[in-house]
Amino acid sequence: MIVVMSPNATPSHIGDILSSIESAGLTPLHMPGTERVVLGALGDERALAELHLEAFDGVESVKPILTPYKLVSREMHPHDSVVGLGGSVRVGGERFVVIAGPCSVETSEQMHDAVGAVVAAGAHAVRGGAFKPRSSPYSFQGLGQEALDILVECSTAFGVPTVTEVVDTSHVDAVAASASVLQVGARNMQNYELLKAVGAAGVPVILKRGLSATLQEFLLSAEYLMDAGCADIVLCERGIRTFETATRNTLDLGGVAYLKNETHLPVIVDPSHAAGRRDLVPPLARAALAAGADGLIIEVHPDPATAWSDGAQSLTPHDFSRLMDSLAPIATAVGRTLA
Ligand code: PEP
Ligand code: MN
User: Fold this and answer.
1) Which helix (H) or strand (E) holds 5?
2) pTM (2 decimals)?
3) Residue 128's pLDDT is what?
4) DSSP readout, 11-62?
5) In DSSP terms, which residues pair with 211 in a beta bridge?
6) Ligand 1: nearest atom to the Cα of 133
7) Does 129 contact ligand 1 (Cβ within 6 A)?
8) DSSP result, 197-236
């Protein structure tokens, strides 16, 4: 329920409503705006109806939130949220943010080469997997803590925020202590216990869309994170399963446009896992920028032919640099900045 206060509502009118919501066992939300105060009440709809909030002094109107997700909906929060990833890197504002790096952290040297190259080409933050959720149990599973230590070294050496995936509730504290941003991967989008633990970790989160998740399921997973206390959530469209087999997944740019309408959270695109092959990554990346995404997360490896995971879709540093150059005029055309 959204309670819009009239412009002349007093702090005591607001206080009365917040405490009534709370005493009915519901969660009150206070959202002061520039023109008027908006309050929210989350919880059992029947208890909400019994409160008759429309009859309280200072109330202009009471509206139900029609979507099943509440905290992440634009109805609740009309303005775009801007999410800090660490340092001065913020996603969701005018700047189009590019996160780049290898699929997996392999060695200190590989990671330093990769980070040096992507930062020189203009990346704002870097990625590298420490715990890898692989389809086959025989594939490389990630270096774990050793990779986290390498990420810390790189973040310090190059002064950039780092993004890495967390796959298990028991790893959340260690990953949050080492990385600037926690990634919840596609395979774990509906791992609700993981979402609760990650949401309570006190660090920003990139939530990737599940392989076969609807946009509503995606937003409900973001709602889990926010309900657990995390306000700094970035959604990531990374391609979904369709009947098409020519590409690894099908990049859902319609979904990106839909999400931008439906939620205040920033939305980024991962063209690497969508395409599965490096030649398709640059056009998908440019399309994402043109379609209104707030940023990209791209796999780049110093030597993709020897990559321990996802080499086929990884750009070389040279390809990445050319891609960054080609994004600049599109950013200008759609009113974004890259630098
Ligand atoms: C990754 O980012 O390397 C990854 C495994 O991504 P996804 O969860 O989108 O498959
Ligand atoms: Mn990968």
Assistant:
1) strand 2-5
2) 0.95
3) 98
4) HHHHHHHHHHHHHTT-EEEEEE-SS-EEEEEES-HHHHHHH-GGGSTTEEEE
5) none
6) 5
7) yes
8) HHHTSSS-EEEEPPTT--HHHHHHHHHHHHHTT---EEEE
Q: What is the mean pLDDT of each run of 10 residues along the chain (339 residues)?
A: 92 95 91 84 84 93 91 92 97 98 98 98 98 95 97 98 98 98 98 98 98 98 97 98 97 98 98 98 98 98 98 98 98 96
CA distance 155 to 307: 21
Give the sign of the dihedral formed by CA 223, CA 228, CA 230, CA 236: negative
The neighbour count for residue 156, using CB atoms within 10 Å, is 10
In the numeric block, the tokens 């099908």 are attached to: 250
Q: What are phi and psi of 40, to 5 degrees?
A: -130, 155
Paired with 86 in beta bridges are 89
Classify 150 as helix, strand or coil.
helix
For residue 132, the ligand 1 atom closest to its alpha carbon is 5
What pLDDT is attached to residue 43? Answer: 85
Strands 295-299 and 267-269: parallel
User: Does the C-beta of 251 come closer than 6 Å to ligand 1?
Assistant: no
Using the structure block, give the residue that is written with the tokens 């939620």. 263
The pLDDT value recorded for residue 44 is: 82
Using alpha carbons only, give the angle 111, 117, 119 rounded to the nearest 5 degrees.
100
Alpha-carbon gap, residue 25 to 309, rounded angstroms: 49
Is-contact 154 162, C-beta < 8 A?
yes
What is the residue with the minimal CA distance to atom 10 of ligand 1?
Answer: 186
The encoded tokens of residue 241 equal 């399963």
Q: How far is it, in rounded angstroms, from Cα 69 to Cα 189?
A: 15
Q: What are phi and psi of 80, to 5 degrees?
A: -60, 135
